[in-house]
Amino acid sequence: MSLRQIAAVAVLALASFTSAATDDDKKGVQKPAEQAVQGSDTVAGCFSSLADMTLLTTDNFNSQGYCAPRCRNKGKPVGATYLKACYCGTKLPNSQSLLNDTKCNEPCPGYDPEACGGLNAYTVYNTGVQVNVAEADPDPKTSTTSAATSTTSTSQTSATNTPTTPAESQTPSDDDSGSKTSVVGIAVGVVVGVIAAAAIGGGAFFYLRKKRNSELEEEHRRNAAVNAFISGGKPPRSSGGVSIADSRMDPVMNRRMSDGSIADNQDYSRRILRVTNA
C-alpha cells in the first residue's frame, strides 16, 4: 500500500470517528421510521396517542433496547417509551396521531442520544413479533372534529351551489298561512263587534227618544187640561178617554144673575124656574 493510500484511509477513519463522536454528543434524537423486520425491533415513529397499549414497567435505564425486547418477550407486537415508562400493545397508533419526529425530543434515561417521547408524544416501536401490525381506530376526539369540519364544509358548499327557484322562494309557508288566517279572523271579529255595538246603541237611542216623546205628549195634555180648566173651556180628552170637566162648570149656568152668586151647596146642573113679579 502506498503512502498516499494510507493517508486516505486515515482521513476517512478520522472523519468517521468525528461523525460518530458528533452524533453521540446529540441527545434526545428521534430516529426516522424504519421498515419492520421479523424478530428485531424498529422505530415506527413519533405519535400523540398510545392506542390500546398499557404500561409494562418504569425503569431508570429505559430505552429502545430496554423496552422493545421486553414487549417482544410478552408477545406484544408494539412497544413505546416515554421517559422511564415502557408500554406494550397489540396495535399501532392510528396514522392520524402521527407527529413530526422533532416532537419526540426527550433523551432516554438508559441511552440519552435516543429519544423516549416528548411533550404529549411517545416513541413507538415495532417489536418484530410480526411485520404487519394493524392500526388502532381513530381517536374519537380527532374523528369527531374532522367529521364536524367535513359536515360544515359540505353544508356551506350545498348552500352555495344549490339555487333557489322563484317558485320555492315565493311559496308561503304554513306559518305564514296560519298568521294570515289569524289576522283575518281577528278583523272579522272586530267588525262584527262594532256592528253589534252600533245596533245596541241605535236601539237604545230610539227607545229613549220614544219614551221622551211620550212623556212630552203626556205633559202637554196635562198642561192643556189645566189651561182649559182655568179658562172655562173643555179640556182635551186624555188617552184614557176620561173627562175631567166639572158639571157645575156648564156655560149656561155660568151666567149669574146680578143679584146672586153661585153657592157651593147648590146643584147648578139643574135649571130652576124662577117666578118674579113683573
Structural description of this entry:
This protein has 278 residues and is an alpha+beta fold. It has five helices and six strands, in the order αββαββββααα. It has a six-stranded antiparallel sheet with strand order 2-4-3-6-1-5, with helices on one face. A hairpin with a 2-residue loop joins β3 and β4. About 16% of the residues have low confidence.
Main features:
278 residues; alpha+beta; six-stranded antiparallel sheet; 5 helices; 42% helix; rod-shaped; Immunoregulatory_rcpt-like; signal; membrane; WSC domain-containing protein; WSC_carb-bd
Largest sheet: 6 strands, antiparallel
Q: Which value, in Å, is the CA radius of gyration?
A: 64 Å
Q: How are the strands of the biggest sheet laid out side by side?
A: 2-4-3-6-1-5
**What is the averaged pLDDT score?**
75
Helix content: 40-55%
Tell me the span between the first and last alpha carbons. 217 Å
Helix and strand run: HEEHEEEEHHH
- In terms of per-residue confidence, which ranges show pLDDT below 50 for 5 or more consecutive residues? 143-173, 238-245, 256-260
Shape: rod-shaped
Compute the number of helices: 5
Please count the beta strands (DSSP E, at least 2 residues each).
6
Structure classification: alpha+beta
Q: Beta-strand percentage?
A: 5-15%
Give the helices and strands, then pairings.
Layout: H1 3-25, E1 42-47, E2 54-58, H2 64-73, E3 78-82, E4 85-89, E5 98-99, E6 122-126, H3 140-161, H4 166-170, H5 174-231
Overview in brief:
By secondary structure, the chain is an alpha+beta fold. It is built from 5 helices and 6 strands, in the order αββαββββααα.
